[in-house]
Write a structure and sequence with these properties.
Elements lengths: L12 E4 L2 E4 H6 L1 E2 L6 E2 L3 E3 L2 E3 L1 H5 L21 H4 L2 E3 L6 E3 L4 E2 L5 E2 L1 H6 L10 E2 L3 E4 L4 E4 H4 L2 E2 L18 E9 L3 H9 L4 E5 L8 E5 L4 H15 L3 E2 L7 E7 L3 H12 L4 H8 L36 E3 L4 E8 L4 H20 L8 H7 L7 H7 L9
Parallel strand pairs: 14-16
Antiparallel strand pairs: 1-2, 3-4, 5-6, 7-8, 9-10, 9-11, 12-13, 15-17, 15-18, 15-19, 16-17, 19-21, 20-21
Helix pairs in contact: 7-10, 8-10
């Protein structure tokens, strides 16, 4: 028979969608993801191939009109469903932009607003544009509710707007206010790119300050402004509970392993302790097994597991490297130097290929000109025979 696709004569054929095709042409056809049959003219939907028959059975979103693989009970695709909510009074599904919120935070559609369904004592309505979206919870709050000292892990950090490098860092600083904690939190939040959260691990009226993430220079600027605000208003170093944690954008398993070695290697311990001012098995434990002698050459999986939360350096489930080794501080020179040490030690680890190079002496000699806080800190703190800077 003749192939109706390539026109070859006297060949064995197979009927596909009412056409006779030679076996070579059949072999080149794709399968329909729905019925599993091969199709001559596949149609694409959400990166999947469908035969014309199955494609014709796919639904269209009532909001955007796009053909999609599935819709919700309101006939909306997944993307459009995010733009809708249910009215807390009549239960109708309406656009987020068309609702207000009563005193309890319930959605109120325009129809219920006009018909007087809202209780008479509900005096505070907020438009959609005036609310803060908490992405993890999926809930909306007024901006006033979103400010102040929030619950633990409640804040959503974001990128500092001026940052562009992709090699980002951020910090978490635990403090104990000297006076009214709420007044201090208000002053802190008047600065840009900072959040305040409760932390049950802290004594008295302590809370945690979390920065947004960004380029090292932007984060150092935020830390500098914060230190100015904290001066004389809070303590951190002079406590038994406060720490400083620095998060870094991680790259690959080998770089992560080298970073963990640098911070845990016994030969670097005196230098690290002098800088961090802290050795806590409860909150930032060192692991002497993570040394340059034990650095693997190929398989890093076991070496790079997401360790217990309370390690001096760990890989987090959020995809960052967290340096937890520092004791907290409100002193600007110390705060900036510690953030730089975390950031530039990881940058250094990325450059070396051998565990033998993971020494603090070689790191200090490598420091680039952009690092302006580490060497002055070392010089001012009398590192003695550890370094001659």
């Amino acid at each position: 028979m003749c192939c109706e696709n390539c026109q070859k004569d006297e060949v064995e054929t197979q009927e596909i969608e009412n056409k006779n095709l030679c076996l070579e042409c059949v072999e080149e056809l794709v399968f329909c993801c729905c019925c599993g049959n091969k199709t001559i003219e596949p149609l694409d939907c959400e990166t999947e191939d469908y035969c014309p028959s199955c494609y014709s059975d796919l639904p269209a979103c009532d909001h955007c009109g796009e053909i999609v693989s599935s819709v919700d009970d309101n006939n909306h695709c997944g993307d459009c469903a995010k733009d809708f909510c249910k009215c807390g009074y009549c239960g109708e599904t309406v656009l987020n932009n068309d609702v207000c919120y009563d005193d309890d935070g319930d959605n109120v559609c325009e129809a219920c607003q006009e018909s007087g369904c809202i209780p008479e004592d509900s005096s505070s309505w907020f438009s959609y544009d005036d609310l803060y979206l908490h992405e993890s919870e999926g809930n909306y709050y007024t901006y006033e509710e979103a400010r102040g000292i929030r619950q633990y892990h409640y804040s959503e950090t974001c990128k500092i707007s001026s940052s562009r490098s992709g090699k980002y860092c951020g910090f978490e600083l635990e403090i104990i206010p000297n006076d009214d904690r709420d007044e201090l939190a208000t002053e802190i939040l008047e600065l840009k790119d900072l959040h305040c959260e409760e932390d049950s691990s802290l004594d008295e009226d302590g809370f945690e300050i979390i920065s947004n993430y960004g380029d090292i220079d932007d984060v150092l600027h935020v830390a500098s402004e914060l230190s100015n605000t904290l001066k004389g208003n809070a303590k951190s170093h002079d406590t038994d509970c406060c720490g400083l944690h620095v998060h870094l954008t991680k790259t690959n398993d080998f770089d992560n392993a080298k970073m963990i070695v640098f911070w845990n290697d016994p030969d670097n311990r005196k230098f690290i302790k002098k800088f961090t001012r802290r050795e806590s098995k409860d909150y930032a434990a060192f692991d002497s097994d993570k040394s340059k002698k034990n650095l693997p050459k190929e398989d890093f999986e076991e070496f790079n597991t997401q360790d217990c939360k309370y390690k001096s350096v760990r890989i987090t489930y959020k995809g960052t490297i967290e340096v937890r080794a520092f004791k907290g501080t409100t002193l600007k020179t110390t705060l900036l130097a510690c953030i730089e040490l975390a950031y530039y030690s990881y940058e250094y680890c990325k450059t070396v290929t051998s565990g033998e190079d993971l020494t603090y002496q070689k790191f200090v000699n490598w420091l680039p000109e952009e690092s302006v806080h580490i060497k002055p800190y070392i010089a001012s703190k009398n590192f003695g025979d550890l370094l001659c800077v």
